[in-house]
Amino acid sequence: NAGVMQNPRHLVRRRGQEARLRCSPMKGHSHVYWYRQLPEEGLKFMVYLQKENIIDESGMPKERFSAEFPKEGPSILRIQQVVRGDSAAYFCASSPLGVETQYFGPGTRLLVL
Amino acid sequence: SQQGEEDPQALSIQEGENATMNCSYKTSINNLQWYRQNSGRGLVHLILIRSNEREKHSGRLRVTLDTSKKSSSLLITASRAADTASYFCATAGTSYGKLTFGQGTILTVHP
Predict the structure, then answer these.
(1) With bands split at pLDDT 50, 70 and 90, how would you rate the model's confidence at A1?
(2) Which residue in B96, B75, B77 sits closest to B17, CA to CA?
(3) Chain A residues with beta carbon closer than 8 angstroms to that of B4
(4) Given this model, what pLDDT does residue B74 score?
């Protein structure tokens, strides 16, 4: 059973470009979570999704950030018009229904030039 | 504001010694979890303790939870060089799914 997969592992964007981060949850997991980790800091919750539904987006910046988890395919975290402050590691986690433990992917490291 | 605060920020010990890390939090929780993160990698779940539990063991790990003091501790016994990593506590509150992480403790175990 493959773990949570994220791609790309590293992404470089120039200011003003768009960044798309993908997350494939573990097989059988219907819940996906996105977190952001700034250098030398802990992870900060961004959004919690189930298939085709956003359950909790209380940690998402109000502008430029969006997330989806379609019926088919991976979850996508989209950042429009990136700025240098968006440079961070973005982690996706997944869990099955009713399980509190979250299983994390290896992360995508976004660098905005 | 960050829910969890970990103490110490960094810990350096010799192989074979025990390592103790502490975590404090501010609001009511359903459970508290500890994760490990090796440099540049994702997080690995270590152990979960529920709000009605006081102590839990898993291999060389021992976790305690004191809800009256809103604090938890992680003890790693007989540490190994491979235990070198950052350790984070994360609390789960009433909002299912959202974990609130502390700043982490950087543990270095010297061979």
Answers:
(1) low
(2) B77
(3) 42
(4) 97
Closest CA to B4 of B56, B52, B72, B54: B72
SS3 state of residue A85: helix
Q: Contacts of residue B90 in chain A, CB cutoff 8 Å?
A: 43
| Long-range Cβ contact pairs of A96-102 (< 8 A, separation 24 or more) | A96/A28, A96/A29, A96/A30, A96/A31, A97/A30, A97/A31, A100/B30, A100/B31, A100/B33, A100/B48, A100/B92, A101/B33, A101/B45, A101/B48, A102/A33, A102/B45, A102/B99
Q: What are A's interface residues with B at a Cβ cutoff of 8 A? A: 4, 31, 33, 35, 41-45, 48, 55-56, 58-59, 91, 93, 95, 100-107
- Per-residue exposure over B51-86, b if at least 16 CB sit within 10 Å of its own CB, e if not: eeeeeeeeeebbbbbeeeebbbbbebeebeeebbbb
Rounded-to-integer distance, Cα A73 and Cα B67, Å: 41
